[in-house]
Specification:
By secondary structure, the chain is α+β, with helices and mostly antiparallel strands. 45% of the residues lie in helices and 11% in strands.
Length: 618
């Protein structure tokens, strides 16, 4: 009964629709009125199919394909072979160039078959109707959907040329296993562009969309091959292929060469996605709005930003980054090699001194995508690694002290705070150089006390450490006493000030974001800020070099090259740090446990120094 009702609805409404569309000239005004109704209710201005986005390394290599929500590489009509167009038209819609979006005769035949079977077995959809279904509707089998499909198809024919409709169709249809459109299918199944496929391979792929799960070439290769043969025979019957050519195509051997989705360097890519969010937030004003919003409004803005990013990725973008694959591999392999201990983790960051771009980022020993990324998500107390930034540079900048100036390394107490040197040792008067390279604590606290806590933190604030707050402003900060601390990437980025004559600019992974045609969409334009004079940073570079040559970082020495840096160890031996410079890079390494615990058993092995040296060697 349901099918008969649907039949009569179609039977009565379709002729009315046809009459409206093809009315005589005396009825033009009425037809125009019908068009106006369609325009009002079916607003089709342009069709944007979701596309694949890409992240690239500094050498141009694609390191990640982002399918949100589908894997599609768009081809213009000129990039689609005429043979493939013939295959689809012959198989799906032989009157494609003649109808206005729907085929009356085909619909009649389908209705007759459906009435006999008391089911909806045939849909008689033209290519235009299938495009309408893929873009605007669902794949539900019902007469209501069929009527909507016809209306959308007619409107598509009014707005677009036949060539454009066929182009959209071939890019829209599903080829199973996550591939939408012929180009994505070609790359997935044959690891080639569609332009490089043989006619046999093109016809094989063209066999899939009719019923993607049934003709899945991975699971049901023989079914797909049989349908390919039928398609070639149809072309021969329509005199689009000679008998000889048809037989040649059918006899060609088809061998799938499945391509795995590109998803390399997860540590770095995870950070790039986080940085992209920050970039768009700043460029489109979300960051500013969030800074003055209440909690409810912040949640709303976060949701809006997520939707904006998802929309952007669907349009197809290329995110060009500064990743150095060789350095990334060295960082990862060194973490795994130098940290064989259970529950001991590590992270590393490498930044190019000239460009201030992030060359490598390791988030853990065996990092998997979207795991906790210790390189930029782990906030840990920095220990003595903070001394160059909070103590020595601010002090030398304001006093122009010589590295041989003397400072008391004996006991110190102020308002109940009584820090100690390593092992409780007291050294009396020592030079600034000796205090720095051997990482004495009491001199560092005295230096901060002498210039004033506010002065030290005034300089430190220019590095934009996210989790450093006013409650951290105490003398204990001179030796790394912070509520939360900073991430390895934050601390490494701050140290680039010593490689750039006192100027600082945040290190970034993203060079630019473009659309697939190469037009610039976003890029960073962070200002460079001078925090200290070149005179001061030159002295700090000397101190850090001496630390590697004869201080606490001797295991990081690089023969015949400049190497300088500062170690850091937190109370209870819970964190080991080394942030160091060469002529080309600033690199930082952190070692610790996710659930903080003592690492005193591996202190003598100094894995943080060995990892740094591994990365910076050669």
């Amino acid at each position: 009964m349901r099918t008969w009702t649907g039949f009569f609805i179609i039977l009565f409404l379709l002729p009315i629709f046809v009459v409206l569309v093809f009315a005589t000239s005396s009825e033009t005004q009425k037809v125009q009125g019908f068009h106006e109704v369609l325009d009002e209710n079916l607003q089709i201005k342009e069709i944007r199919l979701p596309l694949t986005s890409y992240i690239k390394a500094g050498n141009g290599q694609v390191i990640s394909e982002i399918h949100q929500p589908v894997n599609r590489v768009y081809l213009s009509s000129g990039g689609i072979s005429s043979f493939l167009k013939d295959v689809f038209i012959t198989a799906e819609d032989q009157h494609f160039y003649e109808h206005a979006g729907f085929d009356i005769a085909a619909i009649g035949r389908a209705l007759a078959i459906n009435i006999q079977s008391d089911d909806i077995e045939q849909g008689a959809s033209t290519i235009t109707q299938q495009l309408a279904r893929n873009v605007f509707l669902t794949h539900e089998q019902s007469y209501n959907r069929k009527l909507s499909e016809i209306l959308y198809a007619y409107e598509l024919e009014r707005k677009f040329s036949k060539e454009k409709i066929l182009e959209l169709y071939i890019n829209a249809i599903y080829f199973q296993n996550g591939a939408y459109g012929i180009e994505a299918a070609s790359r997935l199944y044959f690891q080639k562009s569609a332009a490089d496929l043989s006619k046999a391979q093109l016809a094989f792929l063209a066999a899939i969309p009719n019923n993607p799960s049934f003709y899945d070439p991975v699971k049901h290769f023989d079914r797909t091959k049989k349908r390919q043969v039928r398609l070639i025979d149809q072309l021969k019957e329509e005199n689009l292929l000679s008998l000889e050519e048809a037989e040649t195509i059918k006899s060609e051997s088809i061998s799938l060469q499945m391509k795995q989705r590109i998803d390399l360097y997860p540590d770095y890519v995870t950070y790039v996605e986080a940085e992209l969010r920050e970039l768009i937030s700043q460029k489109e004003g979300y960051h500013e709005k969030v800074s003055i919003a209440d909690e409810q409004k912040k949640d709303e803005l976060d949701t809006q930003l997520d939707e904006r990013i998802a929309s952007l990725m669907e349009q197809g973008v290329i995110i060009e980054t500064a990743l150095n694959p060789a350095l990334q591999e060295k960082a990862k392999s060194s973490l795994q090699k130098r940290l064989p201990y259970k529950d001991v983790e590590g992270a590393a960051a490498v930044i190019d001194n000239d460009t201030l771009e992030i060359s490598a980022l390791a988030g853990g020993k065996n990092y998997h995508k979207y795991d906790f990324n210790r390189a930029f998500q782990a906030y840990r107390q920095p220990g003595s690694a903070i001394k160059p930034l909070l103590v020595y540079a601010p002090y030398i900048e304001r006093t122009n002290a010589s590295l041989q100036d003397q400072i008391n390394a004996g006991a110190f107490c102020r308002n109940g705070y009584c820090p100690q040197n390593y092992g409780g040792a007291r050294y009396g008067m020592v030079s600034l150089e000796r205090a720095f390279i051997h990482s004495y604590n009491t001199p560092a606290v005295r230096l901060l006390d002498s210039i004033g806590i506010e002065i030290g933190f005034k300089d430190l604030s220019q590095f934009r450490f996210k989790m450093v707050s006013k409650k951290d402003r105490g003398l204990s900060a001179a030796v790394g006493g912070f509520s939360y601390g900073m991430t390895p990437l934050e601390l490494t980025s701050a140290y680039t000030v010593f490689a750039n004559e006192g100027y600082y600019r945040p290190a970034r992974a993203i060079r630019k974001v473009t659309n697939l045609e190469g037009e610039l969409l976003y890029s960073w334009d962070d200002p460079s800020v001078q925090i200290w004079s070149n005179r001061t940073t030159d002295k700090l570079r000397q101190l850090m070099a001496k630390t590697v040559q004869s201080g606490t970082a001797r295991k990081a020495i690089l023969p015949n090259r400049y190497a300088g840096g500062k170690t850091g160890t937190t109370n209870g031996y819970k964190d080991y740090w080394f942030i160091g410079l060469t002529g080309q890079y600033t690199a930082g390494v952190w070692i610790g446990k996710d659930d903080p615990g003592s690492l005193v058993s591996i202190q003598s092995q100094a894995p943080q120094l060995l990892i740094w040296k591994d990365m910076m060697a050669d």
